[in-house]
Amino acid sequence: MSELKLWIPTYNGNFFPDEIADDKIDEYGKPEVPVTAYQEAGLRVVLGTHDPTEDFDKPDLLIERQPHAWAMIIHPDGGDPSCLAYILDDGRTFLIPQHCPCNPGVQVVDELSQVPGLKPPQPKSRELAEYQGHRTFRFIARRVRDLGVIGAAIRNALSEIHRISTRESLAPDAMERIVDKHISRLARPIP
Question: Could you tell me the pTM of the whole model?
Answer without folding.
Answer: 0.57
